[in-house]
């Protein structure tokens, strides 16, 4: 099975942009130790200090979904969502 990529774009609330940037850097450092995660890249949007994009590589969609279920169950997602201006936009993408 080929690995899958997940691309997620977040928009932090303006007053929380700096704190959210720190959180994203923590995710970049810790996520690769999650079961099935092959790597993660973090991008800032040069024209918008509140916007961040993660590009994650996973062994399978199931590995990613299990990770997300754990994040939600732990309450970590609620803490992250409180920093956001709106829901993140995400998709599973295949490299061509």
Automatic annotation (TrEMBL):
This is Antibiotic biosynthesis monooxygenase. InterPro entries: ABM_dom, Dimeric_a/b-barrel. Transmembrane segments: none annotated. The lineage of its organism: Bacteria, Pseudomonadati, Pseudomonadota, Betaproteobacteria, Burkholderiales. Residues 4-93 form the ABM domain. One of its GO terms (molecular function) is monooxygenase activity. The keyword Oxidoreductase applies. Keywords: Monooxygenase, Oxidoreductase. It comes from the Bacteria. The keyword Oxidoreductase applies.
